[in-house]
Q: What sequence folds into this?
């Protein structure tokens, strides 16, 4: 089976996925849509794909097996619902939007249609994450401590909170997703933030510290900052007989690669691993295979699961303005002391 793919959004992350898909002989990109026609044309050219500037026109004219929705957070305008209603499987880049109402509508449409879904939390496919889960097995996790520290990206919309959601929602969602992946569901979160270094480039905090308690008793913490001249995307896991440090990086290339490493101690023995396999490529390969076979078991971040990470990032943002703990459950933000 050759999988017919459409793309809605032709920016940076879409270009990475498109380039990785060139290595497959079982995929045909049939259409690319972007509000900037020139961007759609550039992305479509290697595939001789149809070009659109309106996603409704794309779905009226094309019949893809699946669609990759890779638009900025503020630009989710019904693309996913329309695709699901037409039986088109969905790969959606994070963050999945800015509002819980948007996530509610999309999640319901996916469930009603029975289509496959994957959200671009590629670190679940990182070699270091896979190895850590193998080493930990069913051991209890006591502490998860994560970091997303770097500078301000170049996208014009990124520094505007009403367009990006802020760094917690737009970038650090990757780390909060791993907090859930290893620590289980979060019961309550407290957060503090400030802005002392970054100027008018952003209209939100340039540093945030969030502490969480999980339903199973695990404790976690995530640091976020856009004020650093260097990058640190990493995760520390501490538990029954283990202490593991995971690090994530992007290696320049065409396309760039998302790579990872792991070091630490398990049952008194030192461990150290380097992983060169690209998580971006692995997550998209898993999605294509699932579309081909109809088997969702290889999808590690369904929309229903990823929206819980989204809810958690919104709760962190909400907690910045509250004195008490906040629940990630929509409609239940305030938690009794």
A:
């Amino acid at each position: 089976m050759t999988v017919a793919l459409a793309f809605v959004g032709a920016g940076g992350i879409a270009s990475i996925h498109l380039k990785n898909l060139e290595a497959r002989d079982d995929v045909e990109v049939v259409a690319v849509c972007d509000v900037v026609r020139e961007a759609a044309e550039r992305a479509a050219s290697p595939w001789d794909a149809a070009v659109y500037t309106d996603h409704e026109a794309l779905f009226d004219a094309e019949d893809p097996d699946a669609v990759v929705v890779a638009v900025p957070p503020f630009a989710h305008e019904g693309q996913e619902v329309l695709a699901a209603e037409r039986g088109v499987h969905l790969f959606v880049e994070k963050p999945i939007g800015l509002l819980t109402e948007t996530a509610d509508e999309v999640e319901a449409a996916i469930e009603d249609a029975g289509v496959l879904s994957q959200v671009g939390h590629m670190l679940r496919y990182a070699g270091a994450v896979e190895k850590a889960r193998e080493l930990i097995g069913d051991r209890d996790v006591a502490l998860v401590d994560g970091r997303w520290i770097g500078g301000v990206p170049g996208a014009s919309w990124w520094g505007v909170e009403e367009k990006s959601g802020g760094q917690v929602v737009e970038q650090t969602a990757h780390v909060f997703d791993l907090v859930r992946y290893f620590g289980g569901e979060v019961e309550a979160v407290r957060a503090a933030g400030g802005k002392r270094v970054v100027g008018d480039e952003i209209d939100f905090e340039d540093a945030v510290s969030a502490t969480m308690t999980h339903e199973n008793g695990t404790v976690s913490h995530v640091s976020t900052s856009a004020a650093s001249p260097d990058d640190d995307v990493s995760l520390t896991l501490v538990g029954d007989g283990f202490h593991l440090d995971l690090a994530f990086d992007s290696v320049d290339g065409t396309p760039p690669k998302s790579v990872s490493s792991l070091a630490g101690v398990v049952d008194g023995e030192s461990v150290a691993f380097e992983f060169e396999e690209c998580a971006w490529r692995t997550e998209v390969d898993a999605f294509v295979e699932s579309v081909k076979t109809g088997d969702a078991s290889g999808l590690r971040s369904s929309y229903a699961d990823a929206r819980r990470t989204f809810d958690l990032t919104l709760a962190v943002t909400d907690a910045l303005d509250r004195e008490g703990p906040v629940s990630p459950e929509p409609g239940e933000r305030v938690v009794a002391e």
